[in-house]
Amino acid sequence: MSSPDPQFFLQHRDSVSRPAGWRHRRYWVVGRSLCAFRIFRFPSADRSGLRSFAALKAREWAPYAEVGFHAHLTGDAATIWAWDGARARDAMLSTAVRPARLAVVPETAMQRPGQDGTRLIACVEGFDGQVWSAGELSASRWWPHLPSRDQWRDFCRGGGISGLSNGGPPSAEPALWRTRPWTNSGEGFGIERRGREALAAGVALMLAGYGYVGGSFARDELALQQTTQRLRQVEQQAAPAIADRAQALANLQYLADFEKLNPYPSQLAVLAQVAEKLPSNGAQIIAWSYQEGELQFTVQSKPPPDILFYVKTYSDVPGFTQVTADRADAGGLRIKLRLGRS
Question: For residue 72, which of 29, 91, 269, 328 sits 20 to 30 Å off, Cα-Cα?
Answer without folding.
Answer: 91
